[in-house]
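Crash report, auto-generated. Payload:
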Amino acid sequence: MNRKSTLADIMNIVLDGFVIADDQGIIRAVNKNILTMFGYELRELIGLRVKELMPEPYYSKHDQYLKNSLNGKSKNEFMTLKDLSGKRKDGRIFPINICMNQLKMDDDIMFAATIRDMTAEKNHEKIMKDYIKVLKNSNQELDDFAHIASHDLKEPLRGLSNHSLFLKEDYESVLDADGIKKIDRMIYLCKQMEKLISDLFYFSKIRNQKLAIKEVDLNEIIENIKSMIENTLIEKNVKIFIPQKLPHIICDGLRITEVFRNLIVNAIKYNDKKEKHITIGIVDSELRNKRDPFIFYVKDNGIGILEEYYSDIFRIFKRLNNESDELKGTGVGLTFVKKIIERHSGEIWLKSEFGQGTTFYFTIGEHILYEKT
Amino acid sequence: MKKHSIILIDDNPDDCESLVRGFQTTDLSCVIKWYDSPEKYLDYLSDIDYDHINNILPILIILDLNMPGIDGKKMLGIIKANDKIKAVPVIILTTSTNQDDILECYANGANTYIQKPMSFEKMKKICDSLHNYWFKVARLPQEGIYPL
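Recovered output after restart:
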């Protein structure tokens, strides 16, 4: 195998186009990829001036560039050039990246370059950009829709709700028990509808509203929640354990209160044990790297959740249990929790053993800047 | 002698009924005059002469914001620029919770900004509070009316 054919074989296994030109800018060797990329036959390219492959302004600048390069005025080391253009034989211009170097072969100075056709990448980039734009628009429309819908739906609902009340007040004496029952049902359903709309409205608000980020003491937050639901804790025989002191973190305190409150209330609500236990803490706080976000957990000894429902529970308006009308929520608690955590660049997940209890884990992402000692 | 009145300007008849019924649960002794558009009240206003002994200024003007034609914010400006009635307290009663609306209304002379309540229970409480404050606490621009 002679040297020349070895070189040709090597050039042909390069994924990109490969060109070698001499010190006069005359093409001396190319690989097969160059032929398809620029639309030339091999015999047309060998001997052609390399600047013929360049559109303006590179075409006109080429000779000066070559001169500078040969007399050492410009650096002759290896370089990568991005966002250039190449010109095909048919005149079509396309985006390329080039990696080139000056080589000394025996006594001759040569220039070797690999050329990558960036057309597909540029197209992908454009498609991606377009998709992102469409996505942003549709997100915005969705937000607007939720906001407007919830606002405008409330007005007729308010009328409906009030009129059913007035109907009952004004005509109670002429209606029988069944008639009154039906009106009561209407009043109840109006209230349910109102809750759904308010929740939808609030959901669009947590998606959009700026967070009020500041340092908060999580111990204080838990204490506040405990005093807020003090009666429930006594009534339902709930014990809350906090094995180690919780840190100070940087977050939106009101929203994070909501996260803990929702998780605690759920842990009490979906619990059939005589003594309800809730443990709140941090996972592996000893092993944790200072820069890692904390992993918080809220663990209960409640009814548990089957694995097949792990993702369902975060869906808006999805409820797993059939509760009485008085207990029934709208099924938004965990949706809000997840959204708030996502707004804090965090994640939430769970482990549960059916009948034994559930542990929710979550992180509160980049907003944690330091830990108070 | 003419009875004291509260002017209510709101295009939504359901909300009006709710407000009127809300005031009925208080011991308010005052007629509520409902106009379903600012234009209609302005028509009425152009004919009336409050300097005449038989005509007494309304005690309050309760004004909705979202209305077709002249909206509540514009109407507030008109009221506060009208020498006949600019001294009458204006209560904004609207579904809007927009902070800009709230600021603008107060800046332009609204005396109170209230969000329309979803439930009639809350409406009753609002009517009760309004009645207590404006009829039993505040001094009003009309001569001869004192807090009870």
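Post-recovery validation: Chain B is about 40% helix and 15% strand.
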